[in-house]
Amino acid sequence: MAQTMVTSPQMADPADFIALMKPRVMSLVVFTTVIGMMLAPTAPHPLLMVIAILAIAAGAGASGAINQWYDRDIDAVMKRTQSRPIPAGKINPDEALAFGVIISMLSVLVLWFAANVMAAALLAFTIFFYAVVYSVWLKRSTPQNIVIGGAAGAFPPAIGWLAAGGSLTLEPLILFGIIFIWTPPHFWALALVKNDDYTRAGIPMMPVVAGAQSTINQIVAYSIVLAPFAVLPAVMGMTSIVYGVVASMLGLGFLGYALRLKREPSDANAMALFKYSILYLFLIFLALGLDAILGGFYG
User: Fold this and answer.
1) Is the per-residue pLDDT at 297 higher than 90?
2) Could you give the CA distance from residue 118 to residue 120 in angstroms, rounded to a whole number?
3) Ranges of each domain in the chain
4) Secondary structure letter of residue 76 according to DSSP
5) Mind listing the pLDDT tens digit for each residue in 107-117?
């Protein structure tokens, strides 16, 4: 792997290490983890659950640090990542790697003691999958990198379910599936806009390899699958019909944005879909959480 051009980093401050952990990704991990815990059939001690949430968030952040350590060469040439702590010269690569590895191990151990071995094992696998399978192998070798690698971002609600004492049944797999299917159209919408960045860095994202139109067609296909899949919690009895109605409306909105992009391909429409996809996932999991809280009031 090519070495980063940074040779003499400045003194890092805490904010740099926080940035190294990708806090926006961590916030999504925490949110979906909490929803997974809320939907689980058991209710463990609140303090232990807070500790478990912090451990899962730390594990996600640590895998992000390892990802940035490995990607420091391509981050230095991509406009949207040049300001990250390593290419910006704020953190030494060796420090970033040590930080990521140590926090990864501690997060798994803490989750083991605060929750159970199954949740800890799935967290360890998730960290390995993102830091090694996706970052080292998939990202630079196949346009399916986001499709397969999206599993790493889809595990947190299942980890939350297990941490709360639930078993690895169909329900957490459905939560996993919603994020897994959502990831390709979400990320490919951004990749269409940032195509020049990925081309310059030599990353085989779908728009770089297959072109914009093929990528848009696949975005539409995933959107068609996602819309009914996200309704499954209501169909399977995990939630009330109220959630099912909300999920159906949100799914139709997602598909509408995808079809508009297909009719009128443009950076503006791709970015509109990207922004809606973020709102979509937030509202889907918010609806799941609210349904868990309020379900008893409407049957």
Assistant:
1) no
2) 5
3) 15-168, 169-299
4) T
5) 999 999 999 99
pTM over 0.70: yes
Portion of the chain with pLDDT greater than 70, in percent: 95
CATH architecture of 15-168: Orthogonal Bundle (1.10)
User: Residue 204: helix, strand or coil by DSSP?
Assistant: coil
* Angstrom distance (rounded) from CA 65 to CA 165: 29
CA end-to-end distance (rounded Å), the chain: 57
Question: Which residues, other chains included, contact 166 with Cβ-Cβ below 8 Å and sequence gap of 6+?
Answer: 40, 41, 42, 172
- The encoded tokens of residue 231 equal 């309704």
Our measurement of the distance from residue 268's CA atom to the centroid of its chain's CA atoms, rounded to an integer in Å, reads 23
User: If you write DSSP's letter for every residue of 208-259 in order, what string do you get?
Assistant: HHH-HHHHHHHHHHHHHHHHHHTTHHHHTTSS-HHHHHHHHHHHHHHHHHHH
Q: Are 105 and 42 in contact (CB under 8 A)?
A: no
Query: Do 162 and 115 form a contact (C-beta atoms < 8 A)?
Result: yes
On the 0-12 / 13-18 / 19+ scale of CB atoms within 10 A, 106 is middle
What DSSP designation does 84 have? S
Tens digit of pLDDT for each residue in 224-271?
999 999 999 999 999 999 999 999 999 999 999 999 999 999 999 999
Q: Report how far residue 181's alpha carbon sits from residue 162's, in angstroms, rounded to the nearest whole number.
A: 21
| Cα torsion 225, 228, 231, 235: sign | negative
